[in-house]
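Sequence in, structure out. Go.
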Amino acid sequence: MPSASTEASTTVGAVPVVPRTPSVPTAREAADSRVAPGGPGYRRMSLALFLAGVATFALLYSTQALLPLISTDFGGTASAASWTVSAATGALALFVLPMSALSERFGRRAVMTASLAVAVTVGLLIPFAPSLGALVVLRAVQGAALAGVPASATAYLAEEVRPKALVTAIGLFVAGNSVGGMSGRIVTGWVAQEWGWRVALGVLGLIAVGCAVAFRLLLPAPRHFVAGSLRPAVLARTVRSHLGDPLLRRLYAIGALFMTVFGAVYTVIGYRLTDAPFSLPQGVIGSIFLVYLVGTVSASTAGKLVARLGRRGALYLAGGTTTAGLLVSLSGSLPLVLIGLVLITAGFFAGHAVASSAVSHTAKEGRAQASALYQSAYYVGSSAGSTLGAMAFHAGGWLGTVSMGLLAVLGVVAITVVGSRAARVQRRLATV
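Output:
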């Protein structure tokens, strides 16, 4: 119960102002040894996972802003070059569940460290790819290695952070994703304009090495991890349990659909801005990704959004914002296209942070597998969006890509409506 203030009130002009007294933790909160905002280790933990998110997204989407240059260098089409993105995200989706099982046995920090070590090593080899096929293979290996980070990060936070702070903590990790995606594209765009895409990817690889080293030095040792089993039967039973939960299934589908939109838009936008009437140089196109800063803000404030609107209300708002962005981006005016990208980015990152944190909150056991299934669906959506978005652009221009994105957002809204109705039915049954 909140403690009463014993301080005298003051006045500002004619308006009385009562000083705020910090709330006293309940007995349960005081006994909870997990980390809370402002507590020991919280800043180190947040910064470490923020840097892991930066490295993950910077590497995972490292070729996305460079697709027009890669197409020209290897003589490939937009659809062929898009496989340098789809192969990485598809491999991550395939390996995220096995990586989550390893994290249950060997620990979240160990798996994340090993994943980043392999991914940055491959990142230093990628600039030397002799052909488009070799580049796609190396990107697939890198994506598989990176699977250990999203497979373990949210489970680590769910175990080490108090429940009331979980949405905010996961939002900071997702914010790191947005910063990584933004900085990776900006760096590669400007470097590639001067020295080519190979040098750009090499520079990005070195930045990722720095993030990986800092992550390992900063991340506190887990205090609440309990090793699980690697037996396939146990893993299969846990996966069946999660897939049998209607709420988790809806959250998985929402994550996949949001990422389908995002993957399509950011895979194709470089081609659109390179073509007339915009005809922008590569460095300027890379700077367009500064709009990712909006995603950093929307993801890190997702906790406040849920507190005010509820989870489903926040998802409706995220879907509506994304829809507005897609429609605005149809304009032939560059400022309006940028506004559209801002809205799409804000809506996507807010929706992703809300859905991913809801998965960790809903799963009471096998959190790593629950999060892994979400990440798997999420990156399947990314892979599908990259490929289908490029195909839609080839067939119908930017209008084709936007139409595909609108269908995906419609799916998000429909699933959220189903969830709202299911919640109302449960409340009625509880009162009977």
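Check: The beta strands are 10-12, 15-17. Residues 1-31 have pLDDT under 50 and may be disordered.
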